[in-house]
């Protein structure tokens, strides 16, 4: 065994060599790791000592003292001894040493790199010093103003840090010796067992074993052929000679020269893998199996076995047909219904059946099915899909509207709900009655047989499928009719699923469209353009809105509910309605977002209790209010992408708007950002579907959006067009909502404002000033009603509010009157009785004004009223 002449000896030697190599590799790896750890420890210790000494109290003052060496040398030596480093050197910014373990080195220039430390950064380096290889760190010393006033360097030789390898190497060698001994013993045991298993066979015994194998090879009742990679027959047993009729000298000749039938000869020469491949050789039907031998060191070639299957000849044709039909049904199960599109599913059916089953296949569906509705037996059908071996067949083209007569095979299938076989179309008068001219063309074209099968989904008949035969002279038979029925039954399930999805998708789209704004309200503060693109599949929860507020202000809102389908659309509608209601209260953006966050939390809580509903897995919102008088825009967002701002000069930026958490998390406050927008600026609000998808990160999308906005024209419509053209390379997987609003400002001539003294007599002065201003604006018709409205509002402010009090009038699309006071008490409209002396002021205001209300400010409130301009 130890001599290596047997397999057992070779295994023993191989195991010992492998273990020895592993031991050597382990020792080398340990030494390299210890060296790496030594260098890293030296870097860390020198850097820590240098930074500690540089930042120690008094270091800066010592550097700025008249004699830094006298102060710092004792400290440096004490620190060096405690920290176990080889040197601590303090120097000025020119590299002149103030301290050194060897006093004769003080005052000389430091050897090393100083540039990074002079730039304010700490660094380490490895050098070859006079005391051997060492690692030194240089750290800047900064004064309170951040200026570098000196440098501190600490260093240590690697030999003082190391030593681990010397201590661990004997232990590793001892362990390696033990492992080698154990591996040798184990290999010996395995080799002895292998030796026992082979029984120590020699060449003579192996030769006799081969002779036994050869006898068995020629005795079996199955032909065996071995062919090398060049197609030369190496071996053929007696049964192979008998089955193939091989000549006596067949071994050593090429298989193509043995007089075999072409199919069998080509198979043996090719060396390809074959399993039970049937070949007719003379009057015998042979099942051939062939495998390659080019594995595990065996010479390249192939081995083939031959089995006489003559008794299966009568059944082979039908078995092959049955196998093909099973394969077709399997392919129908996996290949039809890959999408939820009715038309595409019908096309998949026709593509599968041509030419494997029929030469032409047509699918006709009721119009209602294409739209997701219930089919109507009295309605017309639409040719949804056509496929064939040629394009010039005189069949109805795709998209043709058809109404089949009752005598036609299609009409009978729709009426009875069962398949119809017309083996000879030329002899079928009922089919020809559908269209005499086209029927004659079809027969003349060569189409001679037809199977029609209704597309049934439960009790519903969705349409009819027609299979037409042209190339094969045999007509369709009963077995093929059953196959067609099974094929259509599988396709009907997929088409019905697509129909149901289309119906639900249409319902969701209808719901979503009904919840989105159809027309933007009239307002004069912003010029607005918008786009809304639904997702490629499903309906999402993106929404947007433009809400006119009091004081000529306008609110912009965009939001997104994560997910698709009816649930997302319904949740979006609830949130949009809530925003409408909250905005009517004239709440600041952060308060409105907080109320919306609380609402989403309640929705989640309610739907968690209902097992049939799913909670809102995520919702975001951005709410912005623009004031055309002050040109200020207040923005708050909850987990939503930031807005983009295009300045009048064309520069684009993303304002820093605090990003609050998504809606529904609760517990965290929302912050706002106040932006002052120049007239003509464009504010761009969008949902994440515009800048983010599965193939790109949101940062990439934001940068692409910035570039697109920089190329856009001045108008909001042009901005929308450029953004969508540049951002969308294909239909998005998520909804996209986009709003571009160009700011306008009220001119100073459209705003009038007066302070009101805390004196009831000042009401008359206010009325006079208002009358003069209305005359300047050409609104004399509104003088009476405006004086009455402001008289009541100012009187209420004087009586129940607090100073200072101001009156402001805005001439926009409406005439807006506002009274400011410092009180937070809101007046309420009530109906005064006949005996009440007061309480009719707000009632008069409500009757004269088109709208009125209260808006709260951080320091008071505003009572406002709007009147339409004449």
Largest sheet: 6 strands, antiparallel
Helix content, binned percent:
40-55%
Strand order in the largest sheet: 12-11-10-15-14-13
CATH topology name of the largest domain, in short, is Phosphatase 2c, domain 1
Sheet/helix structural class = alpha+beta
CA radius of gyration is 46 Å
Uncertain segments are 833-838
How would you describe this structure to a colleague?
- With 870 residues, the chain is of the alpha+beta class.
- The chain folds into five domains: 9-164, PAS domain (Beta-Lactamase, 2-Layer Sandwich), CATH 3.30.450.20; 223-314, 2-Layer Sandwich (Beta-Lactamase); 336-506, Beta-Lactamase; 519-743, 4-Layer Sandwich (Phosphatase 2c, domain 1); 748-868, Heat Shock Protein 90.
- It is built from 23 helices and 31 strands.
- Strands 12-11-10-15-14-13 form a six-stranded antiparallel β-sheet, sandwiched between helices. Strands 17, 18, 19, 20, 23 and 24 form a six-stranded mixed β-sheet that branches.
- Helix 1 runs antiparallel to helix 6, helix 10 (313-335) runs antiparallel to helix 11 and helix 10 packs parallel to helix 16.
């Amino acid at each position: 065994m130890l001599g290596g002449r047997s397999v057992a000896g070779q295994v023993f030697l191989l195991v010992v060599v492998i273990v020895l190599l592993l031991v050597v590799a382990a020792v080398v790896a340990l030494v390299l790791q210890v060296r790496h750890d030594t260098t890293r420890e030296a870097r860390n210790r020198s850097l820590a000592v240098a930074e500690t000494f540089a930042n120690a109290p008094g270091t800066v003052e010592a550097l700025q003292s008249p004699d830094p060496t006298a102060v710092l040398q004792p400290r440096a030596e004490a620190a060096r001894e405690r920290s176990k480093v080889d040197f601590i050197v303090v120097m000025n910014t020119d590299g002149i040493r103030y301290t050194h373990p060897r006093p004769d080195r003080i005052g000389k220039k430091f050897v090393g790199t100083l540039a990074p430390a002079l730039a304010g950064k700490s660094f380490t380096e490895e050098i070859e010093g006079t005391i051997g290889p060492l690692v030194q760190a240089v750290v800047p010393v900064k004064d309170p103003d951040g200026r570098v006033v000196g440098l501190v360097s600490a260093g240590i030789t690697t030999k003082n840090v190391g030593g681990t390898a010397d201590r661990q190497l004997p232990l590793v060698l001892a362990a390696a010796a033990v492992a080698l001994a154990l591996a040798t013993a184990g290999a010996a045991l395995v080799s002895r067992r292998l030796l026992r298993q082979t029984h120590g066979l020699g060449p003579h015994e192996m030769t006799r074993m081969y002779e036994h194998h050869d006898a068995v090879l020629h005795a079996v009742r199955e032909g065996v052929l071995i062919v090398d990679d060049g197609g030369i027959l190496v071996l053929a047993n007696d049964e192979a000679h008998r089955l193939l009729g091989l000549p006596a000298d067949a071994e050593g000749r090429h298989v193509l020269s043995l007089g075999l039938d072409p199919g069998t000869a080509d198979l043996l020469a090719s060396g390809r893998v074959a399993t039970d491949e049937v070949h007719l050789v003379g009057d015998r039907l042979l099942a051939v199996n062939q495998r390659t031998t080019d594995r595990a060191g065996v010479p390249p070639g192939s081995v083939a076995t031959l089995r006489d299957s003559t008794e299966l000849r009568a059944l082979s044709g039908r078995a092959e047909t049955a196998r093909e039909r099973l394969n077709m049904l399997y392919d129908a199960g996996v290949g039809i219904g890959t999408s939820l599109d009715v038309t595409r599913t019908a096309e998949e059916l026709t593509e599968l059946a041509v030419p494997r089953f029929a030469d032409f296949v047509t699918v006709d569906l009721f119009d209602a099915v294409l739209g997701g509705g219930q089919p109507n037996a009295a309605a017309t059908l639409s040719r949804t899909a056509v496929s064939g071996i040629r394009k010039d067949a005189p069949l109805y083209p795709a998209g043709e509207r058809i109404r089949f007569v009752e005598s036609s095979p299609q009409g009978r299938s729709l009426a009875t709900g069962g398949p119809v076989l017309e083996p000879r179309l030329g002899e079928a008068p009922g089919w020809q009655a559908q269209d005499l001219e086209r029927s004659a063309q079809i027969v003349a074209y060569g189409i001679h047989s037809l199977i029609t099968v209704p597309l049934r989904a439960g009790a519903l008949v969705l349409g009819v499928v027609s299979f037409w035969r042209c190339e094969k002279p045999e007509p369709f038979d009963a077995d093929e009719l059953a196959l067609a029925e099974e094929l259509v039954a599988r396709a009907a399930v997929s088409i019905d699923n697509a129909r149901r999805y289309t119906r639900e998708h249409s319902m969701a789209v209808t719901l979503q469209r009904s919840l989105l704004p159809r027309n933007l309200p009239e307002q004069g503060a912003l010029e607005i353009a918008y786009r809304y693109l639904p997702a490629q599949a499903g309906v999402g929860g993106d929404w947007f809105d433009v809400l006119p507020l009091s004081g000529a202000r306008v609110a912009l809102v965009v939001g997104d509910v994560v997910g698709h389908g009816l649930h997302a659309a319904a949740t979006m509608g609830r949130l949009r309605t809530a925003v409408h209601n909250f905005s009517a209260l004239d709440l600041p953006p952060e308060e409105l977002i907080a109320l919306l966050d609380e609402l989403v939390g309640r929705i989640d809580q309610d739907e968690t209790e209902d097992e049939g509903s799913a909670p809102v897995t995520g919702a975001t919102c951005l709410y912005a209010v623009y004031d055309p008088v002050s040109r200020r825009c207040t923005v708050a967002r909850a987990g939503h992408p930031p807005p983009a701002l295009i300045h009048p000069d064309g520069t684009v930026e993303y304002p820093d708007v605090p990003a609050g958490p998504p809606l529904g998390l609760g517990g965290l406050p929302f912050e706002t950002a106040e932006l002052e927008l120049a007239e003509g600026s464009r504010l761009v609000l969008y949902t994440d579907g515009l800048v983010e998808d599965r193939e790109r990160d949101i940062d990439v999308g934001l940068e692409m959006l910035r570039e697109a906005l920089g190329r856009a024209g001045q108008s909001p419509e042009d901005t929308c067009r450029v953004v969508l053209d540049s951002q969308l390379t294909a239909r998005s997987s998520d909804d996209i909502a986009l709003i571009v609003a160009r700011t306008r400002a009220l001119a100073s001539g459209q705003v009038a404002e007066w302070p009101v003294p805390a004196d009831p007599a000042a009401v008359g002065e206010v009325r006079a000033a208002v009358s003069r201003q209305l005359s300047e604006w050409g609104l004399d018709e509104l003088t009476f009603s405006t004086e009455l409205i402001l008289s009541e509002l100012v009187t209420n402010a004087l009586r129940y509010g607090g100073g200072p009090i101001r009156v402001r009038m805005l001439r926009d699309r409406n005439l807006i009157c506002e009274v400011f006071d410092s009180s937070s008490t809101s007046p309420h409209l009530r109906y005064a009785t006949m005996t009440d002396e007061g309480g009719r002021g707000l009632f008069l205001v409500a009757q004269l004004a088109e709208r009125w209300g209260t808006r709260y400010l951080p320091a008071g409130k505003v009572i406002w009223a709007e009147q339409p301009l004449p």
